[in-house]
UniProtKB/TrEMBL annotation:
Keywords: Iron, Iron-sulfur, Metal-binding, S-adenosyl-L-methionine
Listed Pfam families: Radical_SAM
Organism of this sequence: Pseudomonas shahriarae
Organism classification: Bacteria, Pseudomonadati, Pseudomonadota, Gammaproteobacteria, Pseudomonadales
UniProt entry tagged with the keyword Iron: yes
Cofactor: [4Fe-4S] cluster
Source organism, top-level taxon: Bacteria
UniProt domain Radical SAM core: residue ranges: 114-261
Name of the protein this chain belongs to: His-Xaa-Ser system radical SAM maturase HxsC
Alphabetical list of InterPro entries matching this protein: Aldolase_TIM, Radical_SAM_PqqE_MftC-like, rSAM, rSAM_paired_HxsC, rSAM_sf
Gene3D superfamilies cross-referenced by the UniProt entry: Aldolase class I (3.20.20.70)
Length: 393
């Protein structure tokens, strides 16, 4: 989650607010929302103070330096590192030394974080789960939906495992669908808690058709999948969840993170999907994100996809024969055989993406997914080699 360093005063509790300029406030103001109103000079501060005195108590002053505050005594946010952007939805509080950017208007990829709890313990989890109660995040997500001034093309929900929210997940999904009906939604979930038909019906019946469920599958046999997610019985629960998603007409993207035990059995997994799960919308094969539990299991997770070109190519051919669409995510083009470049997507979130020094003059940089910002050249198996010459992607 992106953070911007700030100092707050008078914001006693964690508060969600929309960043807005003073000039645009009148067009956006609503009594049920909170606003961080940007003031660049004393005149603007005076105007905002007058508005608060007139009854607009939902305004928080946003200033670039302490001198700009003047005689202002109410809730204040001082930018001390980085910049908040008009249209951002943020969470601030006095006990925090930063603003959590919950929605950034200018991003290409948008994600709402719903929980850090999970019922799996994946070997390569980039967001290691915790057990503490964070159910308040569901209420905050509802506030994010209300505070967003624009509707992005696509927005994702992630965790942890969102299904652990129970009935609160449906409330979150319905709220976003109501306020942003033209947005498409991606729900990243292991699907296990949808194995129960009654639970699945309670959550999925009548749910917006603009949802896609992104469900991981790591093997074509229980011992393979269960080993990767470190949860006995997960394979059977995942399959039952997938069937219930299909029963309620929900779109499904299967996700396969390309770590060593998965790559060793990729042929069998792709064959299994083609034979038993032909109804999925697509299959996403994903390079592993080198953070979290992946750092604790490098012998299983730290791979160079160049060494597995044959397995990847065979897997794509198998899925193509079964007429199951497939894509590649999170992988730089130089790590893939050129025959698979048309399937590669620029999928790494804006704030997570970086490039190595060698990428500066690479011919295909503009079309490349790049690297996760925590990738360290020379410390991880994935090697970067710039591509020269005129090549069609």
């Amino acid at each position: 989650m992106r953070k911007v360093r700030v100092q707050t005063q008078g914001v006693e509790y964690r508060t969600v607010a929309r960043v807005v300029s003073l000039e645009n406030l009148s067009a956006q103001w609503r009594p049920e929302l909170r606003f961080l109103v940007r003031a660049a000079d004393a005149r603007a501060v005076t105007k905002i103070a007058q508005l608060r005195s007139a009854g607009l108590a939902n305004l928080i002053l946003l200033i670039p330096n302490r001198d700009a505050a003047g005689q202002w005594q109410a809730e204040t946010v001082l930018e001390t590192g980085g910049t908040l952007i008009d249209g951002d939805v943020v969470a601030v509080a006095d006990h925090m030394n930063h603003a959590h950017v919950l929605f950034r208007y200018t991003d290409q990829h948008h994600t709402v974080f719903l929980t850090n709890r999970c019922n799996s313990y994946c070997l390569m989890c980039s967001q290691p789960p915790t057990k503490h109660d964070d159910s308040w995040l569901a209420n905050e997500a509802v506030q994010v939906a209300n505070h967003m001034a624009s509707s992005p093309h696509t927005l994702g929900f992630s965790g942890g495992e969102p299904l652990l929210l129970g009935e609160h997940l449906r409330r979150v999904l319905d709220t976003f669908a109501h306020h942003h009906p033209n947005t498409r939604y991606d729900v990243l979930s292991n699907g296990r808690l949808l194995a129960d038909p009654s639970d699945a019906e309670h959550l999925l019946n009548g749910l917006s058709e603009r949802m896609t469920w992104m469900v991981p599958l790591y093997g074509h046999a229980d011992f393979l999948h269960d080993f990767v997610v470190q949860s006995p019985g997960a394979f059977e629960e995942t399959l039952a969840g997938l069937l219930n998603l299909h029963r309620f007409g929900q779109a499904i993207q299967l996700r396969i993170v390309l770590i060593r035990p998965v790559l060793e059995n990729l042929a069998g997994l792709c064959e299994f999907i083609g034979r038993n799960l032909p109804f999925v919308r697509e299959v996403a094969l994903m390079a592993c994100e080198p953070i979290g539990f992946a750092l604790a299991n490098p012998e299983l997770t730290d791979v160079d996809l160049r060494d597995w070109s044959a397995e990847l190519s065979h897997g794509f051919r198998t899925l193509k024969r079964a007429k199951v669409p497939a894509i590649l995510m999170n992988a730089p083009l130089c790590a893939l055989p050129q025959t698979l470049w048309p399937y590669a997507h620029k999928s790494i979130s804006d704030w997570k993406r970086t490039f190595a020094e060698d990428c500066a003059t690479c011919t295909v940089k503009a079309e490349c997914a790049g690297l996760f910002s925590w990738h360290r050249q020379g410390k991880h198996a994935m090697k970067i080699q710039k591509i020269e010459g005129i090549i069609n992607v």
